[in-house]
Amino acid sequence: AAELEDRYGPLPTPVTELLSIAGLRCVLHRAGVAEAVAVGQAVRFSPVELSESRQMRLARLYPGAKISAATRTIVVPRPKGEDLVAWATSLVTDVVL
User: H helices within 1-97, ranges in order?
Assistant: First the structure.
């Protein structure tokens, strides 16, 4: 992003959004999460395996999150009025990595 901005000046909104999505994909890949899907008013992440301490952290930081050990998924309610990509990046960084 810095190199693009240095070369071409201020980046248009679609480019910054594309870069943030690419950043989320990198974080998901590093965490071993293959899928992050918006499902109704929630986001489903899979596959995810969390230790007990990470499960407690998820419950504390993201109230209403549901963990399914059988399907190795977590479903977390979507925030209202917050950038979804930044939120998902934070969640994976805070809980999974």
Answer: 2-8, 13-31, 52-61, 84-91
